[in-house]
Structure prediction request, 209 residues.
Amino acid sequence: MPRVRVHQHVNPLSPFYRQEPKPILVDSVFADPKKPLFLDIGCARGRFLLRMAEAVPTWNYLGVEIRYPLVDEANRLASEAGLVNLHYAFCNAMLWLDRLISELPAGSLRQAAIQFPDPWFKKKHAKRRMVNAEMVETIARYMAPGGNVFVQTDIEPLADEMFELFRADPGFAELPINANPFPVRTERETAVEDKALPVFRTSFVKRAG
Prediction:
């Protein structure tokens, strides 16, 4: 079946994308809700998580994406693959991540990833960038102590901006890395590295206490 076609960019500040999502209830979306949770924010078509759910089945995986047709397609593929540890949610994460994950069991969120988000290059559009201080604070609040956040992009100014937002949050300590720590790469990461272009990445660990 051909891929569903969607706009590459959507304005997260438009009225349609301001709608509030319902909180994720892990008991209703995962076969074993006690597994640690991996959160992929801005998961696009969700292929990264699809392969992760197959490769490392000891985790639950939640993908968050602003383009509903991609969410619908990704959940269909997960169902067809029989992956009961994988779910995708439609959500404008820059505005509503806190609402979406507000019902997660304490200590369940152990890993988050933000990979190649839309850079919104024009200065007047910078307010549309997904990662902001509120998102970072939300992740810090729900992340279990010792949990990790992995952030990467091929746009250096965007990398600097995102990294500084996490560095400024007292809930996180930076753990610099030189390579993707997972057994799977995103399609964007593969395309960039196949062209021998740089990827800017780092990780952050949630402090105890």
Summary: The beta strands are 37-41, 60-65, 86-90, 109-115, 143-153, 172-175, 200-206. The chain has seven helices and seven strands. The domain at 15-206 is CATH 3.40.50.150 (Rossmann fold). The radius of gyration is 16 Å.
